[in-house]
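Q: I'm writing a short methods note and want an example of a predicted protein-small molecule complex. Could you take the sequence and the SMILES for shikimate-3-phosphate and return the bound structure as tokens? Please keep the output block clean; save any remarks for afterwards.
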Amino acid sequence: MVPARSVVLAGIKHCGKTTLGRLLARRWGVPFLDTDAELEAEFAVRHKRSAGFRDIYRELGEEGFRRLEAEVIDALADGGSVRVIALGGGVVANPFLSPDALRKLGFGVWLDLKLEIAYPRILRRGLPPFLAGSADPEAEFRRICREREPKFRAFAELPFGIETEEPAETVAERLASAIEKEYSK
Ligand SMILES: Nc1ncnc2c1ncn2[C@@H]1O[C@H](COP(=O)(O)OP(=O)(O)O)[C@@H](O)[C@H]1O
Ligand SMILES: O=C(O)C1=C[C@@H](OP(=O)(O)O)[C@@H](O)[C@H](O)C1
Ligand SMILES: [Mg+2]
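A: Understood, no commentary inside the block.
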């Protein structure tokens, strides 16, 4: 069953938004879109050179990154066909987004992954710029997660808890069923 509205995945860094979003899109045969990739594409157009989102964050600083992110997301909210959208981890806390921009994107899903699972993934991939400068990156990540939690809760029409480390394909299977069940209510 293909959802009637776009499905929008939110959650802390490395909860699996991008990986699971791709798997859901493939399952439903709809386009996949990642706001970090959209931001990279917009940066490339404006600056006539390409850069990854971590480098863009370093170059523009937090405020510049969030302003560009908000512009990209506001543009996406203008419509389009049904698709799966993975948000960047900080989108729900972006102060530059238009009111209702996220709600207009589609059906909000919060991938509520335990920090104890997410943080080792972050260490494996290397600290992102927003943690790299901290004397205690794990405590800083914990603080950011705590601060964002009510925003994820408010955003989500469907909170989806992920309690254990499982292959992404297994999680995607359960997630797809949970979303499909919501739609058939
Ligand atoms: N279910 C999973 N089990 C183990 N590793 C995963 C799982 N889902 C994602 N990962 C890994 O975690 C890292 C972050 O995943 P990603 O999908 O980019 O997360 P996000 O977009 O939420 O930051 C990647 O290295 C990815 O391969
Ligand atoms: O949590 C954050 O503030 C960020 C998360 C990243 O996305 P992912 O959550 O997809 O890694 C990316 O948007 C940027 O580095 C900022
Ligand atoms: Mg991602």
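A: Remarks, as requested: Residues 13-14, 17-18, 36, 53-54, 57, 88-90, 128, 130 surround shikimate-3-phosphate (ligand 2) (CB under 6 Å). The first strand starts at residue 7 and ends at 10.
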